[in-house]
Amino acid sequence: MRACTAISAGVGACFTLWANPAGGATCAAAANKEAAEKVWNTIVAKEKHGEAKLKLVGVKVIHSTRFTIDAAITEENQKDSKVDLFIILDDPLVPPLIEGSMIDVIGVLTEYRPDPFRFTMRQAQLAKPPK
Rounded to two decimals, what is the model's pTM? Predict the structure, then answer.
């Protein structure tokens, strides 16, 4: 399914659709780009333009340092250990997270880039200890 067919699916479902626009029903590239912009605008609106933080549940850690985490949101990217989320933490991780662990993270999505697809989350904190 493409982002253009899933605007009403909700923000959570849109991460997978946005990161993998080639799957599912056919849709013109321009329409898919327009849909991706609608999804991004929905995310920004839910975060109230940075005033509220978004919680992402079940994010896979690919690599971490004291202040950053390379992670995967979508099921496909988690399976392939492919980064689609770069997290910048408010406080240092001591020790860094174990690669492959699953985390819940709270922060503000501040940007995305389409190729390679990746979100950047800032002002981030772990919602609970990793699994």
Answer: 0.72
Q: Is residue 43 within 8 Å of residue 54, measured between CB atoms? A: yes
pLDDT digits (tens, 9 = 90+) for 8-35: 344 444 555 445 544 444 444 555 667 7
Closest to 75 (Cα-Cα) out of 129, 4, 128, 23: 23
* Interacting residues of 108 by C-beta distance below 8 A, sequence separation 6+: 47, 50, 53, 54, 121, 122, 123, 124
> Nearest to residue 64, comparing CAs of 18, 96, 100, 91?
96
Confidence of residue 117 (pLDDT cuts 50, 70, 90): confident
CATH 3.40.190.10 fits domain 54-126: no
Token pair recorded at residue 107: 């922060």
Q: Please state, as a whole number, how many other Cβ atoms lie within 10 Å of the Cβ of residue 73.
A: 25
Domain limits of the chain? 3-46, 54-126
Instruction: Compute φ and ψ for 6, nearest 5 degrees.
Output: -130, 20
Average pLDDT, the chain: 77
